[in-house]
Amino acid sequence: MPVEKQDEDGRPMTPLDIARVQAYLRKLFSNNLIRIVPPARKGLSVEFAVGDEVLGTVYKDVEDGEVSYSVTLTILDEDLPDLDAGPPASPRRR
Length: 94
Known about the structure:
The protein has about 90 residues and is α+β, with helices and mostly antiparallel strands. The protein is built from one helix and four strands.
């Protein structure tokens, strides 16, 4: 697992940061299954999940007094559909 990124003052995301980012993403995507999961132990990353599926990580960045959060979405090649066959055929109407 990647190491948790800390802001320029060396502070990781707080529980309040995590709750605020989760609330924002749930509202933005209209999806209450979105979860921002605190690290299981110090030094691990904050995770972005939908339901039980972990999809990426969340990082806090503080630069010049401005705070931002980055969500990194990880997609494994094995999870992608095979599109070589083309789009599925549409049913014919009579």
